[in-house]
């Protein structure tokens, strides 16, 4: 049963990655289904931080959907633009660069999250990979926030997460998931350049 769930999660993950590469809003639907599956896979594998992060992913996917679908409209409303300047609320928000003033706060959030998760795993679980599990989880939290905001730099976060995760899953015997994350790493590199091109267009 666990391997069946892993295979299904891998297939949904491939769909998610393709939709993310295309900057399609439907990536968030796959982004709800995939963590629902991996909650069980990671718990059974003893990857407790990854188990926890997938609960976060469910909420983040809903947030991402709302930001991509209505974010531009909500921002215009908050700024009290005139009705003549309000565009179709269905218009996709643009891909942009992350403002530099976010860099320090995000670094602080990553460091605090990494340290907190590692402390919990070391002291309260039987995890034998607490630091790597904490690293990928903390960086994933940052990556999901950046993706929801449609910042092109989100790909750099996912390159780091995917590369480390691929090795971690090989170690834990999750071969299908390891292969998926190795593919994620490669496509994330191409995704960065794809989004840069789309951003310029």
From TrEMBL:
Gene Ontology cellular component terms for the protein in this record: plasma membrane
TM region positions: 25-45, 51-71, 102-122, 178-195
Annotated keywords: Cell membrane, Membrane, Transmembrane, Transmembrane helix, Transport
Coiled-coil zones: none
Membrane topology annotation: Multi-pass membrane protein
InterPro entries xref list: NMN_transpt_PnuC
An MF annotation (GO) of this entry: nicotinamide riboside transmembrane transporter activity
Compartment annotation: Cell membrane
The keyword Membrane belongs to this UniProt entry's keyword annotation: yes
UniProt-listed Pfam families: NMN_transporter
Signal peptide: none
Protein purpose: Required for nicotinamide riboside transport across the inner membrane.
Protein family membership: Belongs to the nicotinamide ribonucleoside (NR) uptake permease (TC 4.B.1) family.
PANTHER family registered for this protein in UniProt: NICOTINAMIDE RIBOSIDE TRANSPORTER PNUC
Name the UniProt record assigns to this protein: Nicotinamide riboside transporter PnuC
